[in-house]
């Protein structure tokens, strides 16, 4: 994960975009693998919380990228 994250940071213009994608992928992959490998229950409350975190990350990332466009 860290190798891919570092490579993505080097290739991307915005670290916020990379962080949002990394966080979203981490939540989803962790949930699916936990369900498949360990038969962990995934309650609706967990999905709701994860979606709130991902939505917040997207909003922060989009705010940072739009403020950079205004400066340029």
TrEMBL record:
A GO CC annotation recorded here is: membrane
* Domain EamA intervals: 2-60
**Pfam families attached to this UniProt entry:** EamA (PF00892)
Organism of this sequence: Actinomortierella ambigua
Transmembrane ranges?
16-38, 44-62
The UniProt entry, under SUPFAM superfamilies, shows: Multidrug resistance efflux transporter EmrE (SSF103481)
**InterPro entries tied to this protein:** EamA_dom, EmrE-like, TMEM42
**Keywords linked to the UniProt accession:** Membrane, Transmembrane, Transmembrane helix
Q: What is the name listed in the Swiss-Prot or TrEMBL entry for this protein? A: EamA domain-containing protein
